[in-house]
Amino acid sequence: MILFLGDPHGRFDHVIEAVMACHPEAIVLLGDIQARRPLDIELAPILGMTDVWFIHGNHDTDSDLYYDNLFGSALADKCLHGRVAEIAGVRIAGLGGVFRGQVWIPPEPWNYLMPKDFAAHCGAGNLWRGGVPRKHRSTIFPSDLSVLFSEKAEVLVTHEAPSAHPHGFSVLDELANSLGVTKTFHGHHHDRRDYSGHSLRLGFDAYGVGLRGITDINGQVLLAGEQDDAPEPGTGVALGGRRSGRR
Q1: In CATH, what number does 2-243 get?
Q2: Where exactly are the transmembrane stretches of this chain (predicted)?
């Protein structure tokens, strides 16, 4: 079993509880982690119980603290951004971060191909730790996607949403189809919409995971997001005092 977890925003009790209850082989955090301590410390109770992976979200570069507690933690090498890894026997590709107008808002032409191009434009006084400003460490550059377009995977995880979401992007549909995935999971929007009517057009099944929600690799909601619609009576799996359901 692999669990996909919607934006934790600094809270991890539900993550620990879910792992202890379900014993998944692996979990994948879908960004906006905002750990107040190094991520390995936040998740210390479960590190020996499951394989922890993550992608970053836009809020993970809001401060030095959030950035360092993620990318400076003992779990930094478990970042899936811009790579494919075999996790619990499944090839999973990851794309963290968000599209930003200064760099690229698809389908418009991009302004900068890669971080070093943007850094050269910023000027030395605006650089952060010798590279692009901290905020843009969570910006998606075209070069991030180009690496993945040469890969193959079974599942794609992103912080941004595919085009089935009203604020999604068709370039992520293209990436998913190029990878050959059958499923995608995303966070960011704090909602879980019913994408089932879009599967044929998309060419894959898409799932949004709500705010602090948990969904398994089959698309089953184990813990409803805090802003998800109320579930139908008698549906879902009870975790942490909330019940899951379908939108």
Answers
A1: 3.60.21.10
A2: none
